Amino acid sequence: MTTATLQIDGQRIELPLMKGSLGPDVIDTRTLGSQGHFTYDPGFLSTASCSSSITYIDGDQGLLYYRGYPIEQLAEGSDFLEAAYLLWHGELPDAEEKTTFDTLVSKHSMLHDQMLSLYKGFRRDAHPMAVMVSIIGAMAAFYPESSDVADPRQREISMFRLLAKVPTVAAWSYKYNKGEPFIYPRNDLGYAANFLHMLHATPCESHEPSPVLAKALDRIFLLHADHEQNASTSTVRMAGSSYANPFACIAAGTACLWGPLHGGANEAVLTMLAEIGDVSRIGDFVNRAKDKTSGFRLMGFGHRVYKNMDPRAAIMRQACYEVLDELGLHDDPVFKMALKLEQIALEDEYFIKKKLYPNVDFYSGIVLRALGIPTSMFTAIFALARTAGWIAQWNEMVASPGHKIARPRQLYTGLQRREFVPLSER
Ligand code: SDX
Questions:
Q1: d(CA 369, CA 364)
Q2: Which of 105, 253, 294, 349 is the most buried (most CB within 10 A)?
Q3: CA-closest residue to ligand 1 atom 42
Q4: All residues at 6 or more sequence positions from 304 whose CB lies less than 8 Å from its CB, including other chains
Q5: How many CA atoms lie within 13 A of 417 on its CB side?
Q6: Which residue(s) pair with 58 in the sheet?
């Protein structure tokens, strides 16, 4: 076995190296604690939190594989539910398996009728992500049997319920914002078309989504389905490591994804492009992003792992062209500004040196906006899609032999022991 050697105060510690099927070897530091040492890596920049066979990313080459299949090939030839099946089961479904899976998802897309009253407790202007965190977490109260996470059958039922219901939860949070009645899912529509139907139909008028736009949205779902151990997936694993209820774990992941440094970036990109306002002002904003004291960052640029183009961004840029073409919005000023911003940033020394490329969030907001989806719903859509990856990663962790609850240690920087002072003496 290959080992790494640590020399600490004359103490020689041999740590085994572990090899994956792709990517860098890892140093197995599990025994360090018992030898009186911890590693220190607050942002997990150099830490593998788990082993997983679901998704692989190569940040230098800009690669993304779901169960070994390149994202470009899946985006071209697959659809979101097939990708969800692949992430979950590890293999692409055959025709019969696909039909069974899609039908099961379709037939579980309604919410428990009493959940409707949960929405009514919110103000009308409640952010869809606040609603999603609440409603998804509340599902644990409607399906108490789901807490038996040791039972594979219960895990499977919860995974189907989450995959099937999250579009309804998201669409209804939008309808509630608009003050329109909730539109029920239709079992005769595909996953993405059903979501567009629930968003845009009313009791007075049906909505038949264009197949091109439904396909574009489905591809956006597929591109966002999973992404290794990102912050929200790590949150789901952390919550799930205590054997918490799966709905509570996915609610925790949804909460984490909401942050503007993570899934909230797609909404922040549109806000930033609106603030830039005109191509002539792009240079000022790029300079602000380079100025550390400004606290401003170019939303949609940079990534913890990708130090090359995020492969999803390139596919998303293509989707922009197709959707805007389909809608006759060739001269969409926001898209043109985004293209110009990308070009300027990629030619700028600062961005080149720090390897800051457009990430998945840079173009997704522009496509979603073109699909008639309000900015407030962008992160909710990211959460809808990432639910597929979260449930696959959660299941892999809960089912793994030798599972342990996550319990990091710390570098303590507080005060040494001191004696309590009674109030009368303070
Ligand atoms: C997602 O992890 C995932 O896989 C996430 C995701 C997924 O699918 O789950 O891919 C989805 O979250 C995509 C990222 C969306 N976020 C944004 O677009 C927000 C803007 N980007 C950043 O804030 C930043 O790039 C992060 C948060 C994405 C990455 O942060 P890191 O890895 O902690 O990098 P960092 O903040 O330490 O930045 C490294 C350097 C810094 O400069 P120095 O301190 O080294 O001098 O690059 C600079 C940063 O100041 N930098 C930027 C920048 N991003 C990083 N400068 C200007 N604009 C930016 N966007």
A1: 9
A2: 253
A3: 354
A4: 43, 45, 59, 230
A5: 0
A6: 63
Structure confidence by residue, pLDDT tens digits, 248-270:
999 999 999 999 999 988 889 99
CA of 283 to the centre of ligand 1 (A): 20
What tokens appear for 247 in the block? 């709905």
Q: Do 81 and 101 form a contact (C-beta atoms < 8 A)? A: yes
Residue 396 contacts residue 283 (beta carbons within 8 Å): no
Query: Is residue 312 lining ligand 1, measured as CB closer than 6 Å?
Result: no
Give bridge partners of residue 5 from the DSSP assignment.
14
Q: Answer yes or no: is the C-beta of 289 below 6 A from any ligand 1 atom.
A: yes
Which ligand 1 atom sits closest to the C-alpha of 231? 2
Over the Cα atoms of the chain, what is R_g? 23
- Distance between Cα 360 and ligand 1 center (Å): 12
The confidence band for 111, taking pLDDT boundaries of 50, 70 and 90, is very high
DSSP 301: B
Helix (H, G, I), strand (E, B) or coil at 412: coil
CA nearest ligand 1 atom 34, residue: 304
